[in-house]
Amino acid sequence: MDLWRQPATTLSAMLGRREVRATEILRAHLDRIDAVDPRVRAFTEVLREQALAEAEASDARRARDEGRGPLDGVPVTIKECFDVAGRATTLGIPSWAGRIAERDAAMVTALRQAGAVVLGRTNLSQTMLYVEARNPVFGQTANPWSPAHSPGGSSGGEGAAVAAGMSPLGVGTDIGGSIRTPAHFCGVAGFKPSLDRLPMRGYRTVLAGQEAVRGMGGPIARTVDDLSLFFRAFDGLDLMALDPRVPPVGWVEPEGVRLDGLRVGFYGDDGVLAPSKAVSRAVHRAAEVLRARGCTVTSFEPPDVRGVLAAYLGALSADGGAGIVAALAGGEVDPVLEPLRRMASVPGSARRVAARAARAFGQPSLALMLGAMGGKSVSELWALTDRLRTQRTSLVDAMNQSGVQVLLCPPFATPALPHGASKNFTLASSYSILFNAAQLPAGVVPVTRVRPDELRRTAGRDVLERHAAKVDAASAGLPVGVQVVGRAWRDHEVLAVMRAIESDVGRDDGFPATPVELS
């Protein structure tokens, strides 16, 4: 048996039955990393010696019948933005290379307390503000399905490592789709839990102190059951001791959710950028599966998505880009970030004039970006924060009025992007961003692959549509996922729906349940 091919749940069960040792599992994954990571470049560093010591300690605990739970001995990878004691946390920013962590991030501590073997750290986009995994410090991560394409971002290294069989389970972060987009691009499962479900002390960002929209950690894995395994390993009280923002809430298993009669709100287009044909087909296919399971699937229209995007972008850029500019000063900058850096120096009055001109020339997407971004006064930031909270309430009210408990929709407007294609394509993330702004749990599960007859898109004058048409034209054979969203602290309902889709969709179009071979 190739241990690197096995999902985390299988490895956990094998360890529990003492059919395999943690050191054997670790060495199998190290060998897989040596074989394929020179081509994928998912890792920023592999913690070989430390991981071997942790695996040996796990084996010793098992021998004494003192196992710590389902993650004891299971290899886990972490995104580079989480501190590891004695190592630099850079976010791919050259000037941050000397920022050595004094102690592990709370999430890393929680993993080690659960007995997990921390295998290594994975690549991300510079500053974590675009949907690729490339930066001047660690280079560019390739999508295991296609070396010409990005694995997504900003947690793209995690998506690539899991998809290629180098890691059975990873931890990323998500402030605008950064877990869900890599899951969609790489054909794996990913989940952004309810806000504060997991500890975030020791997580680094260039937007430190920005609280209007907060990032959240979460797992990326090969199956939905692996995602549940991850949460099952932690106790709410233990997590609260590591980070006081985490409430002492226990984990509820998704197996107890009755799908028969569950009301699901379904939409395929949020009105910002229509999804690719393959993405639309995947969402409709998932809806069919849920209807067959006894769910009531009804049409749903999320309110004021463009308004949410404007408030989201306005809040994240409220410092006028000062945090990003300071972090990038004096070092190499990824080309995708150049437009954001230039925009930061444009006075607000000039941006507003440019926004009106863009709207007049039939460029609504560009007008939205120009009108929303830029420095804000304290009172303007407070107003934006209040608007975001009101918009969240409006979304929940719309769900209540429709009687839906769960939403089903695209995770991103297109399949995986060619390298560099995230430049000026931020609004394609609107399907994910909505649920960061609303602070709702959301996950992505793979469904299908792009067919040869799904490469053409009708594009109008809008630059966003024309960009999407180029992405679609190069997307043949790439994986496609769907997004499932639930109510706050009803994470188990989201995972139950994801599990049903994964089980019943049949992984059509030749979608494999095992890692990408990388022949």
Explain what this protein looks like in three dimensions:
- The chain has helices at residues 8-16, 22-40, 48-63, 106-113, 156-163, 180-186, 224-232, 236-242, 277-292, 305-316, 322-328, 338-344, 348-360, 364-372, 378-402, 430-437, 463-473, 491-504, and strands at 43-46, 75-79, 117-122, 134-135, 139-140, 169-174, 189-192, 216-221, 263-266, 296-299, 406-409, 442-449, 479-485.
- It is built from 18 helices and 13 strands.
- α5 (156-163) runs parallel beside α6 (180-186).
- The protein has an eleven-stranded mixed β-sheet, sandwiched between helices.
- The longest helix is centred in the C-terminal third of the chain and has 25 residues, at 378-402.
- It is α/β, with parallel strands linked by helices.
- The model has no long low-confidence stretch (mean pLDDT 96).
- It starts with 7 loop residues before the first helix and ends in a 15-residue tail after the last helix.
Please name the defining characteristics of this protein:
519 residues, alpha/beta, two-stranded antiparallel sheet, 13 strands, single chain, 18 helices, eleven-stranded mixed sheet
